[in-house]
Write a structure and sequence with these properties.
2% strand, 4 strands, mainly alpha, disordered N terminus, 396 residues
Length: 396
């Protein structure tokens, strides 16, 4: 029988064989347990959408502004912010496809048209309520995206851009000739899709609102739902697979990620978001026509995610607010001021640039400037500001 030496006993020899924890073993186990608990806490913090107190305070402030702060906004700003909210839903979808999966698309306007014409048929003509035609529009857009998705499986970069651009022109041809559903080139009315959303008779604390107030509440509530849904998608296994495909698709396929499944799924989810936005756009505007969903609209959505931040959910919302409200701000400025070289403003017809052309030029200019000076968009600016305050006073 071998007798353990004191050194072996101190190292846990007898205690290890008998199962009795020695003081050194106990300290090591307690140390590992505390480290494991700390790792679990940090992991749980990463899983939370709003992990810190400032984030929760900011969320509460946004909710209060959504409920009460909008009372001080004029009809002009309510109208502009409603269009921005509708654009934000589609921009979130495009960011899932381009920012998280790496599939650049110029055909996003096509799926907005699918949602708008689905609303015109099921909402205005058939008479369904919003609880039916809005999800149906999203499902139709997702199915169409899933059908188109396989054509882009072996394409990337400029080739995928060309395919989606061709899809956009093909869709415009279909919408102009399918007169029974779309009304052809003359367009179709969507005014009766949501007749109950009228707050003009609603009186609260002596304040009476118009139709734009109700649309402001509805659209931004749906933006919150869309952002929460997209955030949960990118934090799950499909979201990590999408990002792996974006970073290196061949390596992702080697480790077991199905390119077919996740690329088609990304197209379907992105198309569903765009179709929901198109359904809201058609109902809010009350009238849609094929020319509303052309190449310029697709470029606007590319500008939104570039300006806001590619690969971030809230970046799509920031970009939609900037790009979505820009035409209204330009229109308001042209009504009150004589803009140099601009025709159709307060100064009259003397000028070289029309207001619509000025908006297109500004979209292109913003894309170029952000790609050169801030490729990660406004989201990166926000991250730097937040890091500066977090590390203050050592951030100088």
């Amino acid at each position: 029988m071998t007798t353990a030496t004191p050194a072996q006993e101190g190292a846990g020899g007898i205690g290890s064989r008998t199962g009795i924890p020695t003081s050194s073993n106990r300290r090591r186990r307690l140390g590992r347990s505390s480290r494991n608990r700390a790792m679990v806490v940090r992991y749980q913090d990463d899983l939370r959408i709003f992990p810190s107190l400032p984030a929760r305070v900011g969320l509460a402030a946004l909710a209060l502004f959504w409920a009460f702060g909008s009372q001080g906004l004029s009809s002009f700003w309510l109208n502009a912010l409603t269009y921005a909210a509708i654009a934000a839903i589609a921009a979130i979808g495009l960011n899932l496809l381009t920012g998280y999966t790496g599939q650049v698309s110029l055909g996003h306007a096509f799926f907005l048209a699918v949602g708008a014409y689905a609303t015109a048929h099921f909402g205005a003509e058939v008479g369904w309520s919003i609880f039916l035609w809005l999800p149906v529009a999203g499902v139709i857009g997702g199915v169409v995206g899933a059908i188109i998705g396989p054509f882009a499986l072996r394409l990337r970069g400029n080739y995928l851009v060309i395919v989606t651009l061709g899809m956009l022109f093909l869709g415009e041809h279909i919408f102009k000739n399918w007169t029974d559903v779309t009304g052809g080139g003359n367009g179709i009315s969507v005014a009766g899709a949501l007749p109950t959303l009228d707050t003009s008779k609603f009186d609260f604390l002596g304040q009476r609102w118009d139709r734009n107030q109700g649309w402001f509440w509805l659209s931004w509530a749906l933006v919150a739902v869309a952002a929460l849904l997209a955030k949960n998608i990118v934090r799950t296994r499909p979201g990590r697979a999408m990002q792996a495909i974006r970073d290196r698709d061949l390596a992702a396929e080697v480790i077991g990620v199905s390119l077919t499944r996740y690329k088609i799924a990304a197209f379907a989810v992105s198309s569903a978001f765009a179709a929901v936005a198109g359904a809201l756009y058609g109902s809010f505007q009350g009238f849609v026509q094929p020319s509303d969903f052309g190449l310029v609209l697709s470029i606007q959505y590319v500008a939104m995610i570039v300006i806001g931040g590619v690969g971030t959910i809230f970046g799509g919302i920031l970009g939609a607010v900037v790009v979505g409200t820009l035409p209204f701000v330009i229109q308001e400025l042209s009504s009150n001021y004589d803009l140099p070289l601009v025709s159709g403003d307060k100064g009259g017809l003397n000028g070289y640039i029309e207001i619509a052309s000025l908006n297109k030029m500004l979209y292109g200019l913003l894309i170029v400037l952000f790609l050169i000076f801030e490729p990660h968009g406004l989201a990166a600016v926000w991250f730097r500001v937040k890091a500066w305050f977090r590390t203050w006073p050592f951030s100088y």
